[in-house]
């Protein structure tokens, strides 16, 4: 297993440096600098979350996921393992990445174009809210898993520590605007707020949304009430 990252994320280091510079220059701090943590906006590509039982069905008894790359949220990782998703039109997405660690439900998260291509009528839902969503078939190296539900388009959302929520005057389940600058500047009006002491400040949008706003490293983003 890969060791968890021991050094701070680049955005966290830059945030501290900016704050020190404003203090040293005795200049008023912009709101983004006064915030407890830097805002990180990441594109979340199509992926799935699986239960331990589902992993064993697809990969064999006793099988455990192996971290390939640690993600920004503490303890979360992209696994080495992938599966094949078979859609209603008998079209497939191979190499669908599994994100770990295992969860207590099975969920597939697709972008709108992914869903159309495979034939899914996937609704926009918050993670974990899978009641009434379409199912699908997953294929692994040693078995198949038929899902009765769980295929969704993940709602744009922001992970917040309680300190971040207090700073932005937001609460879990509310919505905030995300303003993305750059040549394709746009504002996302319904970014779902999720709050936990385990979270770091991070917005997740899918690949369609990331392409639409031209998101890339260095593009300024801000949360707007």
**Major sheet, described briefly?**
9 strands, mixed
Whole-Å distance between the termini?
A: 40 Å
Report the helical percentage.
Answer: 10-25%
Q: What is the mean pLDDT?
A: 95
Measured on Cα atoms, how large is the radius of gyration? 19 Å
**Total DSSP helices:** 6
Shape summary: globular
Report the sheet-strand fraction: 25-35%
Number of beta strands = 15
Structural class: alpha/beta
Residue runs with pLDDT of under 50 for 5 or more positions: none
Strand/helix succession = HHEEHEEEEHEEEEEHEEEHE
Using brief descriptors, characterize the structure shown.
6 helices, 15 strands, six-stranded mixed β-sheet, nine-stranded mixed β-sheet, 225 residues, alpha/beta
Strands, helices and their partners?
Layout: H1 10-25, H2 31-34, E1 40-44, E2 47-49, H3 52-59, E3 67-70, E4 77-86, E5 92-100, E6 107-109, H4 112-118, E7 124-125, E8 136-139, E9 144-147, E10 151-154, E11 157-160, H5 162-168, E12 175-180, E13 186-195, E14 202-206, H6 207-213, E15 221-224
Parallel strand pairs: 1-14, 2-5, 6-10, 7-10, 11-13
Antiparallel strand pairs: 2-6, 3-4, 4-5, 4-8, 8-9, 11-14, 12-13, 12-15
């Amino acid at each position: 297993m890969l060791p968890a990252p021991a050094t701070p994320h680049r955005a966290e280091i830059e945030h501290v440096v900016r704050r020190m510079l404003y203090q040293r220059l005795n200049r008023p701090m912009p709101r983004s600098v006064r915030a407890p943590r830097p805002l990180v906006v990441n594109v979340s590509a199509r992926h799935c979350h699986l239960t331990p039982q589902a992993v064993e069905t697809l990969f064999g008894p006793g099988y455990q996921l192996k971290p390939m790359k640690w993600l920004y949220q503490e303890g979360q990782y992209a696994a080495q393992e992938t599966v094949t998703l078979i859609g209603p039109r008998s079209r497939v997405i191979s190499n669908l990445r599994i994100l770990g660690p295992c969860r207590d439900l099975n969920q597939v998260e697709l972008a709108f174009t992914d869903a159309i291509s495979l034939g899914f009528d996937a609704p926009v839902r918050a993670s974990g809210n899978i009641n009434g969503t379409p199912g699908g078939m997953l294929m692994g190296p040693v078995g198949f898993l038929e899902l009765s539900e769980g295929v969704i388009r993940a709602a744009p959302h922001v992970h917040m520590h309680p300190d971040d929520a207090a700073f932005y005057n937001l609460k879990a389940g509310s919505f905030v605007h995300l303003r993305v600058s750059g040549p394709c500047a746009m504002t996302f009006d319904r970014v779902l707020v999720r709050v936990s002491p385990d979270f770091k400040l991070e917005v997740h949008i899918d690949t369609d949304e990331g392409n639409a706003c031209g998101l890339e490293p260095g593009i300024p983003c801000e949360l707007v009430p």
